[in-house]
Task: inverse folding
């Protein structure tokens, strides 16, 4: 009876998944960032500056917690609805690649950082929250980093990051608008591809 | 004399630029010339600033660079006291005064940032923010080669700030000049560091820096609680 052997595993997986879905957003940010910072500080390959390894860490640890479709749609603003589903898919893919690269680059630069987590206030039943953290760097002012998060069937997902008051989504909205003005959605896709290919 | 004229001219421009901007909107009437200035700045960053920063990092230990930026921050804190007062932010003023006294007195003229270890937060107020707090809009966005992004309002603030520095009062001329040099190199190094991320992230560095700068300044004027931005459509 094969079924009996896989059933416990399935149940375990189910419970693990539901436990994660119920994890509070601030607890999630803390867990994920501590895990990533831990790897950054101890992994010998990361320490040696191995870009492929750093990207792997970002891909496997950070990315699952981001809602890239929503991030891309927000950065596109009103242009999102004008894009075909095929274009939308390409945009999400390319934007995701760009952010992974940027994030990996940033992680390589700031190895000696620690994070401070602010207590979250507000309605426990809210479906959208902002989790506030601070990055403490040696010899520099602390940099506040806020994560805008939304509750989805797959658990809490980040849809914007605000670093020292600079929103990722707002910043890219200008960039995207400009590319679209100069040649439509295809021009934006082309520019993103070129940037990622470089 | 020249400096006073420049301040007066900029102050006039600031008043005239008046209500032309709504918060959250980009106001960049000089975009064409700003972009030209930006283009001039690129090779300066690449072939002058970057080698200087690399040399600085190569020949100085990290505690030394920390000491230099602490010195710069301590002077910023001193000016922050003035701007806390101009905005009536007395809590911040208390913190900044404590910071400057502790760091100047016990931290060898600001070389060691003891106050941060004591968890006394920086007020980080400047003249540009004070003008913003008083209700002046940013006015036109400006990109100045070597200096970087600014606006008519913030630029006016920066000029006020440059009129005097405690460093000017150091009687020993060679020492004073070395400090001027180190402060400048430290600021160049910060700019080069920041540009690394922009190089990686931006599709068009000009728009990227413009929006990031304006968002950051708005955030600072509202002490981290800017009014929500309206969508542009």
Result:
């Amino acid at each position: 009876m094969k079924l009996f052997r896989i059933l416990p595993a399935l149940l375990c997986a189910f419970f693990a998944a539901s436990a994660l879905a119920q994890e509070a957003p601030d607890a999630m940010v803390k867990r994920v960032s501590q895990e990533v910072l831990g790897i950054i500080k101890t992994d010998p390959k990361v320490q040696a500056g191995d870009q492929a390894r750093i990207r792997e860490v970002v891909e496997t640890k950070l990315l699952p917690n981001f809602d890239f479709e929503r991030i891309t749609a927000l950065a596109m603003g009103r242009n999102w609805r004008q894009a075909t589903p095929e274009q939308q898919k390409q945009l999400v893919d390319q934007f995701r690649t760009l952010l992974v690269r940027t994030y990996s680059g940033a992680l390589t630069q700031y190895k000696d950082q620690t994070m401070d987590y602010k207590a979250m206030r507000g309605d426990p039943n809210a479906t959208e929250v902002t989790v506030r953290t601070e990055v403490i760097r040696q010899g520099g002012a602390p940099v506040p980093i806020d994560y805008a998060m939304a509750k989805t069937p797959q658990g809490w997902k980040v849809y914007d990051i605000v670093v020292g008051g600079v929103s990722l989504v707002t910043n890219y909205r200008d960039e995207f608008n400009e590319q679209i003005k100069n040649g439509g959605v295809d021009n934006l896709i082309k520019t993103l591809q070129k940037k990622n290919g470089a | 004399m020249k400096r006073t004229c420049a301040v007066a001219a900029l102050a006039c421009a600031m008043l005239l630029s008046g209500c032309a901007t709504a918060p959250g909107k980009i106001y960049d009437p000089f975009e064409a010339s700003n972009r030209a200035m930006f283009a001039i700045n690129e090779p300066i960053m690449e072939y002058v600033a970057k080698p200087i920063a690399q040399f600085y990092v190569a020949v100085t230990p990290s505690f030394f660079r920390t000491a230099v930026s602490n010195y710069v921050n301590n002077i910023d804190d001193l000016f922050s006291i003035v701007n806390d007062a101009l905005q009536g932010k007395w809590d911040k003023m208390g913190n900044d005064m404590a910071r400057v006294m502790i760091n100047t007195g016990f931290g060898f003229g600001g070389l060691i940032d003891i106050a941060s270890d004591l968890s006394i937060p920086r007020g980080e107020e400047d003249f540009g923010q004070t003008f913003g707090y008083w209700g002046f809009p940013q006015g036109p966005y400006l990109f100045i080669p070597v200096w970087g992004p600014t606006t008519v309002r913030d630029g006016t603030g920066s000029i006020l700030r440059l009129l005097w520095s405690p460093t000017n009062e150091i009687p020993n001329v060679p020492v004073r000049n070395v400090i001027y040099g180190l402060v400048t190199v430290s600021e160049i190094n910060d700019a080069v560091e920041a540009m690394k991320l922009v190089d990686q992230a931006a599709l068009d560095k000009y728009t990227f820096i413009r929006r990031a700068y304006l968002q950051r300044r708005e955030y600072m004027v509202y002490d981290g609680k800017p009014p929500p931005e309206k969508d542009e459509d």
Summary: Chain B touches chain A through 34 residues (CB under 8 Å). The first strand of chain B starts at residue 141 and ends at 144. Residues 216 and 224 of chain B are 9 Å apart (CA to CA). DSSP finds nine helices and two strands in chain B.
